[in-house]
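Q: Got a minute? One more chain.
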Amino acid sequence: MNDSNKKFLSFFDVFIFVVFINSVFIIDVVKHDNSRYYLALLMSLTAPFLVIIAFRLKPVWFAVLSFFILIIALIYDVQLLEYRNYVNVSTWSTILDSYIDEAQEFAKGMHSKTFGLMLFQIAVYIIFLIKSFRLKFIVFSKKIRRIALVLLLLLVVDFTFKGASRKSFPFRGLYGLGDYIVTKYRESRVLNKKASYDYETVRLPEFDAYQKETIVIVIGESLRRDHLEYYGYPLPTTPLMKRENLIVYTDVVSAANQTINTLKRVFTPVEDLDDKAYWDKPSFITTFKDAGFKTFWITNQYVYGRHESQASFIAHETDRFISNRPNNYDEVLIPELKKVLRDTARKKLIFLHLMGNHAYYKNRYPETFNYFHPEKITDKKEKMIRYYDNAVRYNDYVLYNFLQLLKQQKGERTFIMFSDHGESLYDAYPDYAYHGTEKPSKSEVEVPLILWFSGEFKNHHPGIVEQVKNNKDLPVISYDFYHAIPGLFGIRFKDYKPENDFFSKSYVPKRKRKIINVNLELLEYDKLK
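A: Always. Here it is, folded:
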């Protein structure tokens, strides 16, 4: 076999290698049957050849560089086949921030077809790598190399301006990795700055330093309180939790009608529009750590992204951050909570951040929870509401399972659930559901707040429990959580304001509760429709 044949075969090998590495992406493109996806596929298949031609890469160097592309391909396989999602910034966070035991558990739960495809792609790469040591590429003229370089630059320009190449493989994954690196850098700067702030935390003596304590705080998503059965909703959306001995707060509104704008005001001393305190001071999570608690954040939300990063900065103040890939049903957090509850720390504060009732509602529950049968309803709006109610009923199941796990623990136990914001089901505008509107309805900010105390907590702190019950009908806005949640557990710190602690005798309700809309404008809650 002459040398020219070897050169020809080496390019053929590249083509075979590229096709198998792109196999899952090719299947996804065919499913979409969209011109932009086909263009993205063309870019994915031609980019390796352009790189080889433009830079006169030797086969061995191309194979070595392709190892990183193989890694992205394997991740891509998992995301598309296991989660029907793409490689993005949250994917990289899940991979790079996870503990080894979490990775091992995930590998055990992977479907055999995904695992088999990954092994096959690895085998193809190894064969290609071995061949690369003895094959050569055709060397092209300077003119052709310049043309290849120009085409590569066009791909980069298209990628930069969010064209088809951003959808292509591996650019989509590389973009997410770049976002992750930038976000982690910003996060480290934010957290380092916050870590230097001293809250001068003390704890009231009635809380025994040796007493075992477990606090579970669930952050719901897009859950409006008037669709909960224990708030008077006529349909059976909360059959499990309504049986529990809950303290139900009846007049709580969120600080904003979007997640991050609310959570910044729940966890840090930010009020109204000035969010400087969010960047300068740690969240109230730090006060619990100062008081001897080990803290955990378990999330089923996106971790990093255009809107999620600032929430993740709060979450990463905890001692341990556990992320599940988003768009799973929230019940995936049940075994995660079970594992965390087995932690030997005497005092634990655990946050569970749900996907909850986030749009699209029919994607938030398994088919077994299709209780209200929206598919049988012809009216578009009524159908959407029934999808939402199914999601609420599933949320009830998830919360109930969290609470049952907590009940199995020893010592003082507390369960708290609130939602980041509510939801408009055609309340704000006659043709609009969801949230984040410019002129929100009250339903977008009216949220549930429920508490459950164990017998041990009630016996040790009867006055606190009684006061919590006495205050349950007072008007509350969620930026007072920053004072009330630590205050409930006897934690005092230099920014604590007793008049903002709605669980205490000292609480002074706001005369006017002002919420923030999508345009970052302050609106009076009482004037919303």
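A: The chain is about 45% helix and 15% strand.
Q: Perfect, thanks.
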